[in-house]
Amino acid sequence: MSVKKPRLCGYDYSSNGFYFITIVTHYRQPLLVGVNREGVARFIGQLNKTPGVSVDYFTIMDDHVHMILILNECRLMLGEVVRRFKARTAHELKAPLWQPNYYEHVIRNEQALLRIREYIQNNPQAEKIKWEEIYGGLPDKSGDYNALPDKSGDYSALLINRVRSF
């Protein structure tokens, strides 16, 4: 029995794009309440100060955080952005907040972006996202990440739409 790898083999996680991130608390304990929730929200806002990183959407639940992060000419890989966020929040709040690792999904098209935003806003407690529904009934083919408005991987159309949608 093989263990599923949490990241796509060969994918460049410093690529410009939209990434759906879920970070879970230590042993899924309800640690993100009160002062901890406020502190985590403050640090999520500070991610926008990281060159090349912006937060598109987020929600904080008692035991996990969902975020859509945008990397645009970022010098850091996605994992380093998440690592720094987790380390800083745990250090500043003086608590072992997070379980090791995180979940991510590379957002491949505008339809998926809109559906994931809707998921984050309306149904953050759902147990599992049905990726087939987000991508129009097609199975999630790991590695088919050129299904963008521009096959070259140019996310400018998504970035423009993001700015217009707010």
Summarize the structure in words.
It is a single chain. By secondary structure, the protein is α+β, with helices and mostly antiparallel strands. The protein has helices at residues 34-46, 78-92, 110-122, 131-134, 156-164; strands at residues 17-24, 53-60, 64-71, 103-107. The chain has a domain at 17-125: Transposase IS200-like (Alpha-Beta Plaits). It is built from 5 helices and 4 strands. Helix 1 (34-46) packs antiparallel against helix 2. The longest helix has 15 residues, at 78-92.
For the CA atoms, what is the radius of gyration?
Answer: 16 Å
Taking the alpha carbons of the first and last residues, their distance comes to 46 Å
Order of strands across the biggest sheet? 2-3-1-4
Low-confidence stretches: 140-153, 155-166
Q: How would a textbook summarize the main sheet?
A: 4 strands, antiparallel
Q: Please tell me what the overall shape is.
A: globular
Question: Looking at CATH, which topology of the domain at 17-125 would you report?
Answer: Alpha-Beta Plaits
| CATH architecture annotation name of the domain at 17-125 | 2-Layer Sandwich
- Helix/strand/pairing category: alpha+beta
In short:
This protein has 166 residues and is an alpha+beta fold. The protein is built from 5 helices and 4 strands. Strand 2 (53-60) and strand 3 form a beta hairpin.
